[in-house]
Amino acid sequence: MRLDLITIFPEYFAALQLSLIGKAITDDLVQVGVRDLRDYTHDVHRSVDDTPYGGGAGMVMKPEPWGEALDAVLAEAPQRPVLVVPSPSGVPFNQGIAEELSHQSHIVFACGRYEGIDHRVIEWAKQRFDVRELSLGDYVLNGGEVAALAMIEAVVRLLPGVLGNPDSLVEESYAVATDGLLEYPVYTKPASWRGLDVPEVLLSGHHGKVAQWRAEQSRNLTAARRPDLLG
Fold it and tell me: What are the angstrom distances between the C-alpha of 8 and each of 37, 47, 153?
């Protein structure tokens, strides 16, 4: 998989060199290119924003630098890429979308700032990219970098060879095998800690009872915290 990241803060993406994502990059399972949007400006101040037409607070990211940055990505793309635009007005990002994106060969993340990117960039890009405007949640961040990092981790961990034990994907929250429910509580040694004991059923060695307990815990937790997932 190829990832291209366009941002005015390239340093944000140093975190991709850590942990399993960093190992995936080292093992060449993922190739990452980070582009500084200011490299595609032509004025002495390297300006990427201007006041909004129609008035209002804040600044809007100018179309010219974005157009040139996306042109540069397209010039090196062997096929039509996916363009992810993190936005609070986008479609909510979820595990299903992460799974879908994990099958793509080339994803570009356009990390906006201020009041957002001039909408003409999105309209223009739709003719050349498969554009996905995605929201990380019902809140507003200062920019798209944090959202992009979260989405990248959710997607890349699904790629074959990234996780040491791929079976760990099967029973986690939102997985198909768990009917999209939240994951049950997990425990490890010691069996007793600070007066709190591991549930006895998990020590029984009875796999059928363990599976039943986990399914019940998963459903109860989902009912309490995310009843919308119960259908």
Answer: 5, 10, 20
pTM value? 0.89
User: Which pLDDT score, from 0 to 100, does residue 110 have?
Assistant: 98
Query: pLDDT confidence of 231, banded at 50, 70, 90?
Result: confident
In SS3 terms, the chain reads as CEEEEEECCHHHHHHHHCHHHHHHHHCCCCEEEEEEHHHHCCCCCCCCEECCCCCCCCCEECHHHHHHHHHHHHHCCCCCCEEEEEEEEEEECCHHHHHHHCCCCEEEEECCECCCECHHHHHHHCCCCEEEEEECCCCCCCECHHHHHHHHHHHHCCCCCCCCCHHHHCCCCCCHHHCCCCCCCCCCCCCEECCEECCHHHHCCCHHHHHHHHHHHHHHHHHHHCHHHHC
